[in-house]
């Protein structure tokens, strides 16, 4: 069952990245499984990969993706940790705050996109109206005017959507830390920041690894917000690898090259997961030795 | 209280499921014939469902309608065809028609009864654009549209401008004055959005209005040899540099979003698809420029603008060709003798069609009178210009990849000759 649901699509899509695929031309050799015909398409070797690696647009998108993922992972982790630390403290309304926290995360990204268009739009945006009425700006700000500002808007909007999940994980991690450790640290004269540095963060190492991996993968794959907010513009300045792969496959109908582009993302995610593992657990392993 | 065991739960749900399947099967058997599967992208799906219901009730049809989100419509239809699904009748945008036809997804319509009559009634330019490269008809019209110039009459009056611009120089001059007098921050709103319905059709429109060609007879991009295109692009750079255009228009993701900016009444001139004037000038609940405070004027220069025709197509693998053709005649032709569906689109959305005789209908005239000068609109249609380049396999990719080049050019990231050479180079690289 697992090989059918997980393995087959993976293998078939990997094969497509080495093929010349036209979904409307399915004659030629095919695999027949109980009436279902799965065409092989024409094998073209590494041509799809060679072409994309020679395409300057791919490399522009690559570096933009690196910036996007880096900024997103940092923002998500820092904001997620900050919110988790706040929600770990006892205060009036904490249960309500913990429930409200999940709202941004539970919204579909199409809705998130529409919501933020409603906030940031240069003509209809609530944020501009608010700032203008408060006398903080003379004229409405165009948040999506230049590529760099639009890219940063995308990072922040996505962080708004995803940080609550990081908070949830980190909060769960914090609650599993034995209170005796904090009591012992307090008895040794450790202040708040020292307790955070020497008790909380080391105990959260496993959860932090998970947060880093999940947010990195999510960052690489993010597509819907680009679709809703910028469509890769202006002038390709918010085009990431996932958007380029989507465009290539679904707008240019080049499913072979499109799949190849998206497989490079998979490889990047795997490499970064290994790197994170090494970095996050290096010290722990050293201590155990 | 009776305890629900796993066994009793499975038994009960199994019985319910089986009876549901059987009931559906029996109902299906009671129906005569085979239903027609009809798919379209999401645009007023309730209206579509209404006329599908009308067809089913009055014309004994059995149409099953499915609305698919616009953005993913064509890829979805291809992947579902790949999966063996047959939609007998499908919407098809102009730039996908050749691909679907060439790859055997849709069939030619020339051999079907009554098609010659329809062809005779159609504007020849639209008819030409509905044909595949081999000259065969690949679809019948869903709607046609073209680019028009819209102006904000109260704003021009406020600035003491007596008549809308008749030339590009005048339009720029008006915009500069409106900006200088602080009547408008951004007086000009061209449709430079990033989607395929924005920047590039606007690029062709302004090039045509300068008397230039964008493609040669073999559909190759020749913009670097056309002084008219260079003039249009120099003007685009000029209006951008003078901050006459809202910069955010470059990240608007659709023509619909772009035209909504004009609702605010803060812009003086707007170029966009003709039907958007209906919401701008005809929907007071949405637009500050309704009723009829926004008007159209003839496009400057030669007056020629880009025109296109989207269509209904018939699946080449349909097993119910007669029924499918009957439905297509109802949708895109005149099966009922009163242009039922085409008329609905005119009345409800201002979506035009390529049958000039429809515009003599009193109901259409009265409806259009609420938002546009119909005679002027028809005159603009006489200047509509179609292209054949979208029938080339490279067109979709060119159309998308050209946008960043043109956006760079607008923002002064490259000179006009450099930008135009880049477009030619792009097209050659995709051949």
Write the layout of secondary structure elements.
The complex is a heterodimer of chains A (289) and B (431).
Chain A: H1 2-16, E1 19-20, E2 30-33, E3 36-39, E4 42-43, H2 47-53, H3 56-88, H4 94-100, H5 102-106, H6 109-120, H7 126-133, H8 147-175, H9 179-187, H10 192-203, H11 205-221, H12 224-229, H13 241-251, H14 255-288
Antiparallel strand pairs in A: 1-4, 2-3
Chain B: H1 6-30, E1 36-41, H2 45-58, E2 63-68, H3 73-82, E3 89-92, H4 94-102, H5 115-121, H6 124-130, E4 140-152, H7 153-158, H8 168-180, E5 188-189, H9 199-209, H10 227-241, H11 255-263, E6 269-273, H12 276-282, E7 294-297, E8 305-314, H13 321-332, H14 340-349, H15 362-368, H16 374-382, E9 384-385, H17 395-410, H18 416-430
Parallel strand pairs in B: 1-2, 1-3, 5-6, 8-9
Antiparallel strand pairs in B: 3-8, 4-6, 4-7, 4-8
Helix pairs in contact in B: 9-10, 17-18
What does this structure look like?
- The complex is a heterodimer of chains A (289) and B (431).
- Chain A is mainly α and 289 residues long.
- Chain A has helices spanning 2-16, 47-53, 56-88, 94-100, 102-106, 109-120, 126-133, 147-175, 179-187, 192-203, 205-221, 224-229, 241-251, 255-288, and strands spanning 19-20, 30-33, 36-39, 42-43.
- Chain A has a two-stranded antiparallel ribbon. A two-stranded antiparallel ribbon of chain A has the order 2-3.
- The mean pLDDT of chain A is 91.
- Chain B has 431 residues and is of the alpha/beta class.
- Chain B has 18 helices and nine strands.
- Chain B has helices at residues 6-30, 45-58, 73-82, 94-102, 115-121, 124-130, 153-158, 168-180, 199-209, 227-241, 255-263, 276-282, 321-332, 340-349, 362-368, 374-382, 395-410, 416-430, and strands at residues 36-41, 63-68, 89-92, 140-152, 188-189, 269-273, 294-297, 305-314, 384-385.
- In chain B, strands 1, 2, 3, 4, 5, 6, 7, 8 and 9 form a nine-stranded mixed sheet that branches.
- In chain B, helix 9 crosses helix 10 (227-241) and helix 17 (395-410) runs antiparallel to helix 18 (416-430).
- The relative contact order of chain B is 0.15.
- Residues 20-31 of chain B have low confidence and may be disordered.
- The A-B interface holds A 22-26, 37, 121-124, 139, 142, 144-146, 150, 227-236, 238, 247, 249-254 and B 71-72, 75, 78-79, 81-82, 84, 99-100, 103-105, 185, 194-195, 246-248, 250-251, 253, 260-261, 264, 266, 396-397, 400, 403-405, 407-408, 411, 413.
